[in-house]
Amino acid sequence: MTSSSNSASPANAIEALRQSAVLCVGDVMLDRFIYGKVERISPEAPIPIMHIERESAMPGGAGNVVRNIAGLGSTPHFVTIVGDDDAGSVLESLITETSGAVTRMIRDPGRKTSIKTRYIASSQQLLRADDESLLPPSPSLRNEILVAVGGELDHCAVVILSDYGKGVLKDGLASEIIAEAQKRGRSVIVDPHGLDYEIYRGAYLVTPNLKELSEATKMPVDGDDQVVAACQAVIDNHGIGAVLATRSGDGMTLVEASGAVHHLAAEAQEVFDVSGAGDTVAAAVSAALAANIGLKEAAELANIAAGIVVGKVGTAVAYAEDVVATLRHRDLATGESKILSLQSAVDQCIIWRNQNKTIGFTNGCFDLLHPGHISVLAQSKKACDRLVVGLNSDASTKRLKGDSRPVQSEMSRAAVLASLSSVDLVVIFEEDTPAAVIEALQPAVFVKGADYRIEDIPEAKIVQAYGGKVLLADLEEGHSTTATIARLVK
What we know:
This protein is α/β, with parallel strands linked by helices. The protein has 2 domains: 10-331, UDP-N-acetylmuramoyl-L-alanine:D-glutamate ligase (3-Layer(aba) Sandwich), CATH 3.40.1190; 335-489, HUPs (Rossmann fold), CATH 3.40.50.620. 38% of the residues lie in helices and 25% in strands. The chain contains 17 helices and 19 strands. The protein has helices spanning 10-17, 62-71, 86-99, 139-153, 173-183, 210-217, 224-238, 277-290, 295-309, 320-329, 342-354, 371-382, 394-401, 410-418, 435-441, 458-465, 481-489; strands at residues 21-26, 28-41, 48-61, 75-83, 102-108, 114-121, 124-131, 158-162, 187-191, 205-206, 242-246, 252-256, 261-264, 339-340, 359-364, 386-392, 425-429, 445-449, 469-473. The strands form 4 sheets. A 6-stranded parallel sheet has the order 5-4-1-8-9-10, with helices on both faces. α2 packs parallel to α3 (86-99), α6 (210-217) crosses α7 and α8 packs antiparallel against α9. It is globular. Mean pLDDT is 87; it is low at 1-8, 331-335 and 485-489.
């Protein structure tokens, strides 16, 4: 069983996660999101008429746990059951694409793959429609799951049971997996469901939210003392090693069988959506424990990851880069928190689109900021609600400008750009052109200087292909970084 005596800072833990592997077993579902506009009420009934504009799909439930394990840099292994249907095939493809997991997705012809469809307009969820069958696995499928789990335990130090009550872990299967893991010295983390925690006896850690904790123990959870008492009851009554209770705006409380208690303050600065935050907590703790990180430090890392995902929309993922950036920015000015990895920028742009904000993009090396830069940035901002600036890395700037450049490092240049009110987000890219960034972000407006012609801008074709606009910004004459450097060395 993983020891809680080893310790590492969350920053060091991120690097350790890349060497770890976690087995996830549980209920997977297909999360569908349908976005549109509501402008009138139906004449047939007092319900809104939604004009559908776009839709997306992603793995939910245990699938979201797997995505979060992969996002943090750990290697996920996944065992689950789906129906022998189109939704099951879509899920298998999505999980491979989004996580690269080693997947044993067992098909059950008598089961529907769980689908949860959410209809969203103006950032508000209007309706959720669930299409699923809640069946326990048949004896043959049950045996197939246990065989698959046994094979994957050879490669994973930690098992997470993601129980959504959809049937995969029903009828004592959770207990059998815990027993097998214990035989092999593997720790089991449980994201629990329902009132009977006896089925999780022997687990190293359970991660209930306050509602689940209160319902399972029939105890109040209105303050620190009551939460600790309820956690201790779970430990004492069900032979569980520790409880990590997630408390929304009040952070988390970790109670160990030894009696140690740790209260962790909430990390989120602004909450957009709590969907999937529990998945992130379970994934982060499991990945950290698999990397031989101590339990308290694993909980701290999970707390940071949860604070990141609730600032996103939908069943989001906390990436390793997000956690590192959060750690860097804890004591820095707000401006630097605008500097994001590409994947985090994609998530942020989803939030802005759901708020009906127009996203603009411009790019450059921005080595020594001068009035010409300021003018282009101001014109770019005027053309959109939220401006993303793509910044050439040190390596790509050197390739483009010569061995003597850049004068300032990429983080220095990014920090200067992030301090400007016209700039909402900065993404550093390694390539010579921002083509990959544009393809990922799909800004509605792409701005370049008027020293280009639209037909001579390679990225223009990418933007125009998805319906975006390319604008040319007027240039301030007499200003360039090269000329400024030349004057300085005279």
